[in-house]
Amino acid sequence: MAQLQAQDLAQAVNDRMTDWQDPSFQQVMSSLVRHAHAFVQDVQLTPEEWMTAIQFLTATGKMCDEKRQEFILLSDTLGISMLVVAIEQARGAAAHTSKPGEERPTEATVLGPFYWEGAPELELGADIGAGNAGEPAYYHGRVTDTAGKPIANCALDVWSGDGEGLYDMQKGGDAGMRLRARFHTDADGGYRFWSIKPTFYPVPDDGPVGGMLHRMGRHPNRPGHMHMMLNAPGHERLITHLFVSDSPYLDSDAVFGVRNSLIVDFAAHPAGKAPDGRVMDKPFHTAHYDFRLVPTA
Amino acid sequence: MAQLQAQDLAQAVNDRMTDWQDPSFQQVMSSLVRHAHAFVQDVQLTPEEWMTAIQFLTATGKMCDEKRQEFILLSDTLGISMLVVAIEQARGAAAHTSKPGEERPTEATVLGPFYWEGAPELELGADIGAGNAGEPAYYHGRVTDTAGKPIANCALDVWSGDGEGLYDMQKGGDAGMRLRARFHTDADGGYRFWSIKPTFYPVPDDGPVGGMLHRMGRHPNRPGHMHMMLNAPGHERLITHLFVSDSPYLDSDAVFGVRNSLIVDFAAHPAGKAPDGRVMDKPFHTAHYDFRLVPTA
């Protein structure tokens, strides 16, 4: 039999793959093996470092449960989730033949671990912030395609933590859904709702990934942001955030999700009449953002 | 703030590392991030593939317990464990200044998941195979350094599966230790003991890693081998196997551990007198191997 040298091992592993019924799986695995071996060679990984990695991965798996996904957190904090998002958005844009005068689609960012399917469907203008910690904020704007054509009846999922940086899912079993809803745009593509102005918060940092961040000398914080997911027939789905322009950590988001085009001014207003006619008895903010979706090919 | 493009994300992650109290951790993590991002870029990983990877890693973590380490199995089956072994052995050899006429040290291979600390210390010549499935085999040889000088009192840990390919650890809680022992070489570096002739067996393939192997079109089998670990003061520790020369799967060891220099003939003998004077009432094998250890720098 052929004697394998260290530098030939990756090729030997890949030569062993024989079931080509799924070419994309084979392609992904071959590349993974090549890069994993190149990494081990580059750093001349020691048996002790290898064992540390085995123990880290095991602990990361053990930390995962219904409400916590430590491997997604690992992917997020190493910038890998955002890279996958960027690649996916480029793929969607490339498939779309843009016409003269079209504008760039709204940028995507990470889904994050706090999306919860089945949030209540509410009428435009509803307030999902009432009763939660945080300063009131009125969100409004329009959804169009990249040519500027309004998209009516676009499903708009919104979710965020509260004014103290906590999501409902982090508040224990009985808290139920809070600060989430699904809206649908009006005939002109318009949307509007009330919630709170989100604040910065730390990603869960009491597990293996938190230990890694600590050892890297990194903080675990994300700047304040409102999650938005837009689904309209005939258009690419968009998963994104609106980032609060005066939030700390915009320059050092722990999951690398910030895009310049997603940073939004939350204009401060004294108590009084809001843009939708509601009379507020305390100060509030307004945040305006227009979304542009890519028509599917 | 600076807008990050996909190709800049890896650098952005690495720029975030600020705690240089542990330069080797930083070096390993920086390389890991670069290679992980290059992998995702190379294959243009889709969100669906990414989620499959997250779920695979999570299931792999969940499969780990006191007696099963699925991440080590993953590392083994992707050739990474063997690569780390090869790098470590090269490091030891490089640190040693060899003199003219010295021979190459015995090659190392993977530790595997079945080492069990605290096996009984037995006298040379003892039989650890009796009462277990498998054909009897007499193992003998000498331990020297690379200059040929005998190493007396070298601790020699040996372990293997039985003649049906099963290790004691796989036989349920009450089976206890079987087919394992620690011996010590005599004044001339000699060793000898009886066990069984090991047979090929599958690595545990009922978990996520087994699913991966199946999807790759790979079998899970390892050729028959006797594990050996040698520890002697003043010498590099050696972890290796002796592979059975007429075993199936020598060309396709599921963990890529085979080295040509570790393949040993198990000479077949009819019932009768064995080399150590023992009279065997059934056919048996003899396996001869001399080990050469590297003096520590």
Question: What's this model, at a glance?
Answer:
The structure is a homodimer of 297-residue chains. Chain A has helices at residues 9-15, 23-43, 47-63, 70-77, 80-95, 208-216; strands at 136-145, 155-159, 180-184, 190-196, 201-202, 221-222, 225-231, 238-244, 263-264, 267-269, 272-273, 279-280, 284-288, 291-293. Chain A has 297 residues and is an alpha+beta fold.
Description:
Two copies of one chain form a homodimer. In chain A, helix 1 runs antiparallel to helix 2. In chain A, the strands form four sheets. In chain A, strands 1, 4, 10, 13 and 14 form a five-stranded mixed β-sheet that branches. A five-stranded mixed β-sheet of chain A has the order 3-2-7-8-9, with no helix packed on it. A two-stranded antiparallel sheet of chain A has the order 5-6. In chain A, 40% of the residues are buried. The longest helix of chain A has 21 residues, at 23-43. The first copy, chain A, has helices spanning 9-15, 23-43, 47-63, 70-77, 80-95, 208-216, and strands at residues 136-145, 155-159, 180-184, 190-196, 201-202, 221-222, 225-231, 238-244, 263-264, 267-269, 272-273, 279-280, 284-288, 291-293. Chain A has six helices and 14 strands. Chain A is globular, with a radius of gyration of 23 Å. Chains A and B meet through helix 1, helix 2, helix 3, helix 4 and helix 5 of A and helix 1, helix 2, helix 3, helix 4 and helix 5 of B.
